[in-house]
Every structure is written in C-alpha cells, then in structure tokens.
Amino acid sequence: MTLTDRYLGVVLSAVPRAQRPDVERELRSSIADALDDRLAAGEPPEAAEAAVLEGLGDPAALATRLSDRPTSLIGPELFPAWRQVTGSLLAVVVPLLAILLAVVAAANGEGLTEMVGAAIGGAFQALLQVVFWTTLVFAAVERFDTGRDAHQALGVPMGRWTVDRLPVPASARMGASDLVGELLSSIGCIIGLAVLTQVAPVIDGRQVPLLAPTMVSFWVPVLIVVLAVLAVFQVVVYMAGRWTMRRATIHALLQLAFSVPVLVLALEGRILDPAFGAAIRVPDLGAGDGWLMISIAVIVVAVTAWDILDAFRRARRAVV
Amino acid sequence: MDETELLALHLQELRRGTVVVACLLALRTPDYGYALLRRLDDAGVPSDANTIYPLLRRLEERGLLTSAWDTGESRPRKFYRTSDAGSALADRLLVEMDRLTSGLHALTGGPDR
User: Is A83 on the interface with B (CB under 8 A)?
Assistant: First the structure.
C-alpha cells in the first residue's frame, strides 16, 4: 500500500459515496502527473511522493472542501439551542426519574440498597435518553431542514433580509424556554406512565400491581408513543419559530389522541387493577364513578382544553 | 503572528476571489486539473492544488464549467471547459476587478490620480 493509497483512503472515506469513483480517478491522475514532474526533475521517488501529498495538505480538510456538506453533527447555528434544550431537560428529568424510581422501589417494599440502585439506574437512563433524543432531533434538523424558518427562529438571518423577518410578537412565538416547558410536560407524562407500570407494592405478602394488565401491555405503550410524537412536533413548531393555524390544529389532534383514550379509560374504570383497590381496602378506588377517576377526567379535560386553546390563541396573534 | 504570516494570510484572502476568475478564463481552453494548475502558475496567478480541485467541482455544480473524461491517453483525465454562463460571468468579474483596482489606485493617490 503506497502513501498515495493511504492518502486517498482518508479522503474518500469522508466524501459522499456517489462522488467517490470520480474523485478517486481525478486525484490519482493528478497525483501521478505531479509525481512525474518531480521525478523528471531528479527528486528521489519517496521524497517526491511525500512532497506531492503534502502539497495537497491534510486529506480530511481536502475531503471537507470536496464534499461541500455539513461535517459537524450540530453546526454553530443550532448549537446554542441544542445546549439550552439538553441542559434544561437534564436538570429536571435526571433528578425526577431518579427520585421517582426510588419512591417506586420504596413503595414496592424494597430495601435501601435497591432504592439507591434504582435511583442511580434511573438517573443514568434519563441522561442517555435525553442526550440521545435531543441530539438526534437537532442533527436531523441540521441535515434535512430547508433552513429559513429554523435559522430565523434562532436569530441567524439567511438570504435576503426583509421586514417580514422582524420577530413576531412574543406571545405568538415559541421560544426556547417555551419549548423546554412543553417538552418537560410531555417527557414528564412519559416518565410518569412508565413509572406507574412498575408500581406493584407487596400487600399482605403478595405483589399487587397498580395498573390493570391491559394498561401495562397495551394502553401505556400507545400513550407513550403519542406523547413522543407530540414532543417531536413541539420541536418542529419551535424550529419553525411560530404557531400557525395548521400547526395548532395538528397539535390539537395529537393532544386529543392522548387525552380521549385516557378519559374513556378513566370513566370506564379500566385504569387501575381492581385487585389493587381491594388490597388497600378501598374497593371502588378504580371505579369509573369513583372520586379518583372523576378527578383524573376533570384534570385531563382542563389541561387539554387549555393547551389546545393556547396554541390557537398564539397562532391567531402570529397572523397579525 | 509575525509579518510574513500576516502577509501570507492576507494574500490568501485576496486570491480567494481571483482564482475563480482565473479558472473560468483559463478553461475557455479545456484542460484537466493538474495542467490548469501549471498554466495558472505560469500566468502568475498561482493557486494550491487543494483549492483548485474542490473549486472545479463547485463551479461545475453551478453550471459554470462542464467536464468530460478523456480516457484515450496514458492516464484518465477529467477535462473541464468553461460554459457559456461561466464565460459571461468571467467577463463581468474581470470588468469588476479592473474597476476595483483603479478604485484602489485612486484611494492611494497612485497612477490614476
């Protein structure tokens, strides 16, 4: 393997696959031409080859110039937003999940060691999940976003500036702090649901799960997926910089996709495992007309209505 | 940063724009990358290999150059030729560069004063 082969190996590995054969052929013949000239001038072969390659410079830098595409995962325009979102989410989600899992372990009657273990495991999981998903979404925006709206939202003007680019009224805009708030509520619900499936305290010598089996096996996973889609959509709205009627409508549909099933399940008394109520001597705890399920239904309706109306309100202000 | 480094840095900045004009003008006669480098050198507008090869690709993407492989010779060579659009652009840029040069001379109180 010659120095030239090794040099081209580095260049080609960083060039888009479709361009590789063409780039390789052109660079090979150019290197050979330059080498011929140096040999004709009487240079020793090895020194001549090294000099030609050093003339071309760092192969990684050459590949970057040849391929003309982003070589960073998250570029300088998006990096500040990525850092803010990731940092804020970590600050809340990591301790939250650690505490929740420790409490669940305690409720399930496990010892102190298990509680600490659950807390550390939860914190680690939260760390990985938050960093992975925010990075994935931002990296996708970096590559596939056509740009204008997103970069504008982040205060980086692209192309020709017109007065249309002046910031929309703050009440219509979705800023980074709004995004963090929205994401926290979605992620909080996801964590809450996931944690509830794990609650199964030992009562009278046997484990009694809190949630009904169909909740654990079917509804909770479905609801978590809906919430995840909602979270991604919130990032999309943030990148776009403002609410529109269409975005508010999609947002409303996603909200309903979450709250309608929860409402129906609550009012039909299908959320809790009946055995749980019986075990803690409150037999109608999970009943559809019991105080707990009615409260859940009222809260779900109130929160959903507020979220949906708020998005439409912001969309209407953004039109001005 | 010492004086020679500063000079090299600013020369590089200055040449960045001119190398595009030089390529478009030179490639009205079709040529391959390495021969183009030599011609630019001989003409007194030197450029680096690691600048020229990416630049040729970018100019081709923008439709200012066309290319064709010549596999008839001892080694395959990619010949570039300035397109009509590229030629027209080069003329406009050349006029602009002349205008800038005389503008600079006017500022220094040089020949055009």
Answer: no
Tally the domains of chain B. 1
- Check residue B109 and give left, alpha or beta (phi > 0: left; psi -120 to 50: alpha): left
Query: Does residue B19 belong to the interface with chain A, where contact is any CB pair within 8 Å?
Result: no
Is B113 domain-assigned? Answer: no
Domain that holds residue B69: 3-108
Angle between helices B3-26 and B33-42 (to 10 degrees): 120
Residues in chain A within 8 Å Cβ distance of B33: 26, 30
State residue A158's pLDDT score.
Answer: 45
C-alpha span between A26 and A92 (Å, rounded): 53
Report pLDDT digits (tens) over B50-64: 889 999 999 998 999
Q: B 65-84 residues with CB below 8 A of A?
A: 69, 75-78
Q: Give yes or no for a contact between A137 and A231, defined as CB atoms under 8 angstroms apart.
A: no
- Give the gap in angstroms from C-alpha B88 to the nearest C-alpha of chain A: 24
Note whether A55 contacts B48, CB cutoff 8 Å: yes
List beta partners, residue A242.
A173
- The model's pTM: 0.53
A30·B57 Cβ contact <8 A: no
Identify the CATH number of the domain in which residue B80 sits: 1.10.10.10
pLDDT of residue A150: 46
Start-end of H helices in chain A? 3-13, 20-40, 45-56, 59-67, 79-107, 112-144, 148-153, 176-198, 213-214, 220-240, 245-267, 274-279, 291-319
Mean pLDDT value across chain A? 83
Asked if B16 is an interface residue toward chain A (Cβ–Cβ < 8 A), one would say no
Instruction: Output the pLDDT for position A159.
Output: 47
Q: Report the pLDDT value the prediction gives residue A188, as an integer from 0 to 100.
A: 84
List CB contacts of A304: < 8 A, sequence separation 6 or more: A255, A256, A258, A259
Could you say which of B48, B51, B53 has the minimum Cβ distance to residue A27? B53
Model confidence pLDDT, tens digit, residues A75-132: 777 787 788 788 888 888 888 888 888 888 887 878 888 889 988 988 998 899 889 9
CB A280 within 8 A of CB A203: yes
> Does residue B84 fall inside a structural domain?
yes
When CB atoms are compared, the residue of A22, A30, A65 closest to B54 is A65
Of B33, B51, B69, the CB nearest to A30: B33
